[in-house]
Amino acid sequence: MASPMDDLRTTHEVQGRDGNWDYSPYMRGLFNGLELALSFLEGKREPQYRDKPEGGYGEDHAVPIDPLDPANQPVPAGTATG
Predict the structure, then answer these.
(1) Cβ(20)–Cβ(35) below 8 Å
(2) Which secondary structure element, helix H or strand E, spans residue 63, and what is its range?
(3) d(CA 70, CA 76)
(4) DSSP class of 62
(5) Which helix (H) or strand (E) holds 6?
(6) Residue 11 lies inside a defined structural domain of this protein
(7) Is the four-CA dihedral 54, 58, 59, 64 of positive or negative sign?
(8) How many whole angstroms separate alpha carbon 82 and alpha carbon 79?
(9) What is the C-alpha to C-alpha distance for residues 54 and 15, in angstroms, rounded to an integer?
(10) pLDDT average, residue stretch 55-60
(11) Per the domain annotation, does 66 fall within a domain?
C-alpha cells in the first residue's frame, strides 16, 4: 500500500504533465499548490513554481462546440452511427 507521501508525489507528477498543468490557470494553480505542499513536506527544497506557458493555455486554443448542433447530440444506445 502506498504511503500518503507516495500518493502526493504521484499526484504531483501526473498534474505536472503537459496537457494537465498547462491547460488552464486553475490547473496551473493546482500544480503549484501541490508543488508547495510537497516542498514543505520534503523540508529540503524551495518550490519550483511554473509560470504561464509561453504559447498560452490549452483552453485558449480549444475549439468551441455548439451544444445545439445535432452533430453534437448523444447517440441513443443501439442506434447505428454510420
Answers:
(1) no
(2) none
(3) 13
(4) P
(5) helix 4-15
(6) yes
(7) positive
(8) 9
(9) 18
(10) 92
(11) no
